[in-house]
Amino acid sequence: MQCFPSLVLALSSLLGALALLQLSLYLRVPSRYGKHEERLCRPRGRLPARCAWFLQELPSFLVPALLLAVRSPPRLEPLGCRLLCCLFCWHYFYRTFIYPFFTRGRPFPLQLLFFGTLFCIYNGFLQGYYLIYCAEYPNDWCTDIRFTSGLFLFLLGMGINIHSDLLLRQLRKPGEVTYKIPRGGLFTYVSGANYFGEIVEWFGFAIATWSLPAFAFAFFTLCCIGPRAYHHHRYYLKTFTDYPKSRKALIPFVF
Question: How confident is the model at residue 70 (pLDDT cuts 50, 70, 90)?
Answer without folding.
Answer: confident
